[in-house]
Write a structure and sequence with these properties.
Chain lengths: 334, 334
């Protein structure tokens, strides 16, 4: 049986490992933190990131990266997006040239504004698959019905990844629009921030539905300009992931937005959360790209000003509500 | 000032009357129930349908339909969709020929499968506007930010309706795709039922996000086949209204679905709810239309079988999850 390695022992990496094991694919998880690796290997739990699960015996957990990737046919990159470059650098000399890299981190790289496949592609030339979609790790680890997407411009690789993960509770669809899938997964976090801000300001479902609708329109506009296909933004990795993120209390981006909406400043919010909020990086990258390309992104621009120019959140929402009377088509698709 | 009449004193009719009054447009509400009309006129409350509001003094409430519509320039039809024909018949001889009819009921007529504008158009030839979008009445009545759509193939009428309702908290966009707007508003209730069923079965956010995504794809397919524009289903009356309905505990359709998901039978559910569940009619109409036109609507077909063929809800969801391995594009847009 072909070896599968999962790099990263957060909630999503762990849930995918469990799914694979339940699907009769033994696998090895690499965990950066030694104490956590020992807990997972010896006690079969992951208390910090995924409570209430028992790791099947066919999962091995190690703190040794080279050991984890040795002879692996499939390597799942399950670290945060800003660490994808670092981890790829670390493994580049020790992976087989036909190993399929499966990335699950959603985001754009800070400074370069690159998609994850571009970051990885600068370092190695292995087949690359993005495994994205609306998927809370907790639900997947419990076998609750979930639909995700295996996206690659290498169709054979996308199908191989579909095959190993596909199960009655985890349905995997292939998609060849890697650009659209990666951009949908990254850009949705901006709208999750906006949604959180609206909730933090005390606004209701009507306002948040409107933000989600208009938000999808503007991230699609940018995504299509950057080479994604319009339909992709209407699929699982577009609307689907956007809906799950905007409605989840678990989403870091939404929670960070909520705190901002309550009037807290960004540095305080980030310190209190103590973890990475991808949407903050992504807002910066997206607005820079949009300005360069001349794409209108009114919601993202307001979020940018709240995050980086100390703009007042009330005024930001006010700006969005006070534009001229318009036709809907003119407004959404300009 | 031009007279505005609102026919129907449910939560949405009342919220719109309050919005108009706050926008310096006095108006008259016709209330079918005499006791409720007297409560609203004398005590300035609407305990049954919209708690916690005080009706502005510039709203008059009457039980006399002819009195309400006499010389009205704008007439808002705020009764349930299956009563639109009856109310239009009742007023047809007493309205001025240039009165603008503003319909807010979302649904298709049972037996005929007609949209509301078609029902009204069989009786009178007045300008017709659909005022649709993601809008809980409670939030609108409190002045919480809301975006809605004034849709008509009569552009001047759509703009006049935009003008009377437009305010800092209630933004109104015009849209000339009346067919797409009406179909989005009606068909979304099928997906709300499906979403409720999934929740009632104990499924989580992942499953419901997937249902919403695939549901939007299939109602758009039917909607476009029936003459709506694709973009309309991505706007406020499409995605926006779908999201608000699927996530709201207040949605009757979602609540009815939830009870079905818990294993109750349709007749029991409808009796317990004691009110109209538009999505039940709409599922029947949509599936009949889809079969005639050869449009694939796998989710709607399963809901139809649950509602009308006594199908088991678990099996229905199982059917949706057990289809073959596919590409996403093939699946969503076939």
């Amino acid at each position: 049986m072909e070896k599968i390695a999962i790099l990263g022992a957060g909630s999503w990496g762990t849930a995918l490992a469990i799914s694979l094991a339940n699907n009769h694919h033994p696998n090895v998880i690499w965990c950066r933190n030694k104490a956590q690796a020992e807990e997972m290997q010896n006690h079969r739990t992951n208390q910090k990131y995924l409570k209430d699960v028992t790791l099947p015996e066919t999962i091995t957990v190690t703190n040794d990266l080279q050991d984890a990737i040795k002879d692996a046919k499939y390597i799942v990159l399950a670290v945060v997006s800003q660490s994808i470059r670092e981890i790829t650098e670390k493994i580049k000399n020790d992976i087989s040239s036909d190993a399929i890299l499966i990335n699950v981190a959603k985001g754009l790289e800070l400074e370069t504004n690159l998609r994850m496949s571009q970051v990885v592609g600068e370092i190695v030339s292995n087949p690359f698959v993005a495994l994205y979609g609306p998927s809370h790790a907790e639900e997947v680890s419990k076998g609750m019905p979930t639909l995700i997407v295996s996206a690659s411009d290498n169709e054979a690789a996308a199908k191989q990844v579909q095959d190993i993960f596909f199960s009655p509770s985890l349905r995997v669809y292939t998609n060849q629009d890697l650009i659209g899938v990666e951009l949908g997964g990254a850009l949705k976090n901006i709208i999750a921030l906006a949604n959180g801000i609206a909730a933090g300001l005390g606004y209701g479902d009507n306002c948040r539905a409107a933000l989600l609708t208009r938000g999808l329109a503007e991230i699609s506009r940018l995504g299509v300009e950057l080479g994604g296909k319009p339909h992709t933004f209407l699929g699982l990795t577009g609307i689907g992931d956007l809906v799950v993120t905007c409605n989840s209390e678990h989403s870091r981006n939404r929670r960070a937005g909520f705190a901002l909406g309550q009037g807290k400043k960004l540095d305080v919010v980030l310190e209190e959360m103590g973890m990475v909020v991808e949407g903050v990086y992504t807002t910066k990258a997206a607005v820079e790209l949009a300005r360069t390309l001349g794409v209108q992104m009114p919601i993202s621009e307001q979020i940018y000003d709240v995050l980086f120019n100390d703009a007042d959140v009330n005024q930001a929402v006010g700006m969005l509500m006070s534009r001229d009377k318009k036709g809907e088509e003119e407004y959404f698709w300009q």
